[in-house]
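[audit] Reproducing an earlier prediction to check determinism. Same input, same settings, fresh worker. If the C-alpha cells differ from the archived copy the diff job will pick it up downstream; this log only records the rerun itself.
[audit] input (213 residues):
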Amino acid sequence: MGSKAVLFDLDGTIVDSVPLILKCYGEGLSRHGINVDKDELLSLMGLPTWQVVAELARSKESLVINEIIKDIFSCFSNYWQNELKLYPDAVKVLSELKRRSFKLGVVTSSEQEHAEIMLNYFNISKYFDIVQGRVDNLRPKPNPDMIIHVLNKLSVANTDAFYVGDTLYDCTASVNAGVKFILVKRPWGAGVMSKCKPWKVLKELTDILNVIS
C-alpha cells in the first residue's frame, strides 16, 4: 500500500486568524476610502490577497491594489504576534497523524514566506513534510495546481490524499484535484455545502482522527 497524505489549509483551519484578517482588510481598505462589507469579505476567504483586494476595491488598477495590500500587510506585521493563535486541537491532530505515518503538508493562498514564518512561530513546522504557499508559477485555489504539485512532490496519489480546509475555494480546489475534501465547520463556511460537496464535515478539527485511517 502506498503512502497517504493529509494536506491542510492554514488560515481558518490550523491558525485562528480570521478576526485579524477582518481587522487588517478593514484598516487597509478604509485608508483608501473603501468600506468593507464583512459578509462579502468572508465569502472571499481562501482566495489570494491580490484577488480579494481587487474584488473589494472594485478595481483592476495594479497601483491601487498594491497600495492597499501594503497597508494590509503593515497591519498584519503590527499585530499578528499578539493576535494570532493556533486552534486548540491543532497540535494534537498533527502529532497524532504524524504518529500514524501520514505525510503532512500545508497548501495555502498565503504567500510562501508568510506561511513559513507563521508555522515556525507556532513551532509546528516540524510536523509538515512540505509547505506550499502562493507562488507565481502555480495557479491559486480554487484551481487544483498547488494541491497536485504538493502530491507530486510527496509521491502520493490523489486517491490516497485528503485536503482539510474551511472555505468554498478549499473544497473546489480539492474536487478539481481529485482529492477527498474534509470541511472543518467555521462560522464563515456555512454556505460551502450548497456549492461544493465535501467528503466529510467536521465540527472540530480533532474529529479528523475518527474519520481517516
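[audit] rerun output stored. Observation attached for the diff report: Strands lie at 5-8, 15-16, 85-86, 103-111, 130-134, 161-165, 180-184, 200-202.
[audit] end
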